[in-house]
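Write out a sequence, fold above all:
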Amino acid sequence: MIKKVAGVLIVSLMISAAGIGVLTEKVAAAEKSGEALFKQFCAACHPDGGNLISPLMTLKKSDMYANHVVNEDHIVKIMRDPGTGMTKFDEKTISNDDAKAIAKYIRSAFGK
């Protein structure tokens, strides 16, 4: 009987640990959201979608279109090779998946 109880207890602990692992992965994924990544890498120079360095190049839809930035691929391209004034974010710094998440967030948050 004691062996059965111990076995059930061990299995229960294993299941609980697996559940904690899944929860940890979900938290990590949430931390990697486009919004979180934007706040980490971009918000210092682009507060509220603005642009402290080049005020005419904000993340607002009208300014992005005026600067020929019309989709998420264009945003990623600028992150990779921004030109003067903006920090370059290579794939070692921001993965392609994370760069796309940031671009998607920018379009949804500021593209109105």
The first helix runs from residue 2 to 31. The radius of gyration is 21 Å. The mean pLDDT is 85. Residues 1-31 form one domain.
